[in-house]
Amino acid sequence: MALDALDFEMVKKFDCKNLMQLEYGKTDISEFKLARTVVLWASFLSGKNMEARIPVKTQWEFKLSLEETFFKFFDNYTAIDVPAFSLKDKNHAEERRLLKAYFDDEATVEEYDSVVWKNHEENKKDFFNALGRFDLVMGYFDLADAIGHLSFGIPEKMKTVYHELEKMAEEVKSSFEDLVLIISDHGMKAVGRYGDHSRNGFYSANTRLRLNFPKITDFYNLIRRIHLEDESS
Amino acid sequence: MNDYLTDLERRSISIIREAKAQFNNLAVLWSTGKDSTATVWLCKKAFFGKVPFPVVHIDTGYKFPEIYKFRDRIANEWGLELIIAQNKEALASGMGPEKGKLNCCTQLKTEALKSLIKEYEFDALILAIRRDEHGIRAKERYFSPRDSEFRWKYTDQPAEMWDLYVKPSEDFSHMRVHPILHWTELDVWEYVKRENLPVNPLYFAKDGKRYRSLGCMPCTVPIPSHASTIDEIVEELKTTKIPERAGRAQDKERAYMMQKLRSLGYM
Q1: Which CATH number do you get for residue B84?
Q2: Which residue numbers of A have CB closer than 8 Å to B's CBs?
Q3: What is the ipTM score, two decimals?
Q4: Which residues on chain A are in Cβ contact (under 8 Å) with B258?
Q5: Of A174, A219, B67, B90, which one is least surrounded by beta carbons within 10 A?
């Protein structure tokens, strides 16, 4: 589960036991100048720091080839709405359009939130439909990031978001016995009512990976190793 | 004279003189509000009665008539080399607050200033911002480099100890100099009183309301107040719980967030 902006401190604050899993911790994204969503996910997928390769202005159009990602190790995989790979461009363009409209006083937070939640529900449906049918399922959810940018300083609202993600983690774990990796690209911090990206990225796994403050790029080799071990067993 | 206001003034004057010594093409921004009028006055005092660089007024075309009147009178009385910056193209195309307040501010203020910097090749601008105005401004330094998009690397600023100020960075376009950064709103009013500075009449209460911060007409509202003299304003500020910029529509947190989201590529 790729959960955009899932914040290490917030997971602990709301006591999200299912998100925390057997092993959990903070990720190290200190090598990145800016905690940009597309850059961090591209780096996660490729095992390389992609900051220099992805311009800010065109980042949402940026796509890695299959050969550059850990998906190449799998014959049978699905990537749902994954930035820098299989992003649902239309949905995210709509979210960004409403975000801009909010700042131009042309849309309300409620209008923006409702589109974010609608897109979330769509991804959730796709994700749960895919579980068990592929060797690797990667589902991306921007709920905490998108809602957080306009409402991170409103505790009740963020509690609902974290509760939703916690429920999803519970459902995944109860219906699925393989490795469940939950990871975020970055965390979030409050700027008044708004939310800005922070360095408090989060990861957790339902098995002991023995990671210690891992870099987001470390997961590429980890996923490759786990896959090879699975194949040989 | 050696009192608190004089200490504030001395530091500000030394910053203004440092800026003049360091940069070839300096200007001071003047909105005609109390802070920037006090700053222009400090520039005058720093150079013994004559501001030795241009004074820039950004005219959005939506300012209060009192602002234009005050500007022209003081510019004449103080012998200022006044430059008026205006994005005529945007105004001609109908830009205004109804097109979105932030969009309007960007076009009529930021773009007007960008063009002016380019045209006059200013390498430093003196601005009258204060740390106590807003949390974001509290992070500012006296000398703050900006790139061509006016971006400010607020996470990468040195402490300004022992009066050592930052030097231009590689992607430097111009330096922002903030000589009254350490002043409070109350300090400014007490200084206005001490120096007998001219004040825009909009600051004084009329029918139970006065403007505490001056911006464009459509985006500035008066606050409830009965303070019709400088003494009464000083007294009011000692007890008020209303933020200084409460009457300004453009919320800074919101503007900061928008700028941040832009830098992160969301907009």
Answers
A1: 3.40.50.620
A2: 34-38, 56-57, 59-60, 96, 99-100, 103-106, 149, 191-194, 196-197
A3: 0.82
A4: 103
A5: A174
